[in-house]
Amino acid sequence: MVGGDGKISDEEWERFLREAGSGTQEAPKEPSARARMVGRRLREEPGRPEGWRTHSPPERGRGKGAWYAVGLLAMVGLLVVALAPGPVAGWFGGGGGESAPLAAESARPTRPPAAEAGQAPTVEQPFKGSPAARWGDGVAGIHLPSARATGWMSKAQVARALARSRDFLASSSLDAGVLRGQRPRKAIALINPRQRDVQDYLAGAFRAPSRKNDPLLLFSRFPKAEVRLVGDVVKTRGRITFREGERGAVEVVSDITYVYPVVRAAKGSDDVARTIVRREIVMSWDDPTRVITRPGTFSLVSYKADLTNGGCDNTTGYFAPSFGAERAAADAENGPEVDPYDRSTSMDARMREAGGSECGTATRS
Description:
Helix 2 crosses helix 3. Strand 6 and strand 7 form a beta hairpin. The chain has nine helices and eleven strands. It is 26% helix and 18% strand. By secondary structure, it is of the alpha/beta class.
């Protein structure tokens, strides 16, 4: 039954899948992940010149009346500045205040975000000087499209699949416990347990992390003995889309950038760095009459990750951000320059630009 909020209960969802599965006319196929890629470990390079500045020319006046109004407004503005210079500076970013939040990203942007003023992050304002200051908090920064009947699913079922896909992103990349290094059990529970190659990857990723079996492809984890997050907000920007996939499946595609402000775990640490992760994950909600699956789970089609300040050549299973002098020293091994906030290019294009390089230089943090 669909509730008043448009959601389907777990019991109804599983009942539907059981009924669909009972009408099998051909042997269901076991799914596999067709692609698995990890992008470069990008390192931050502080102090680099910033581009992408924008400028809007002032409008021309329209006669004496317009000039009189402009003059009056200017006088009022000067009076306000004289009486309260601090708050006014904050309106324009001079005092470290944040601008209005951006609308959700419903389509790929055509250019990178404009450069921010050269301001260093602080414990009080960990996103200061970053485009992420205007991004959404947690799942609020992830655009969810309107559902429509697709493949084997009705409109209501697609809506449920979209919501559960977003639940996976929250459990894998935003959950407080997982960020502190815990095993992402809720996220793993949403992955089809019959998908053998993926289950082998997951087993190896947490038992013996390696370049091949790297948990950071799908999950965000920091070593709590070394690093802690600043505050309880992770900034996000991105979108979820969907399409019909193979054998009538509904493929949900997520392309999300996460920004994690961190400091060293030692008490009193205030040198704030940011780890920036962009992931593209393709999740297939399969027709149980044609694919071996478990109700309420999806099969992984592909997953890609591009990391900034997460640790170059890092195979520990945890992000390893650099701070201060360490970050400057790491920049000695320069690689291709990339703006980690640029979402105007696809992940495939980003991978091609990397040219197989594991390390690189971020133009901003």
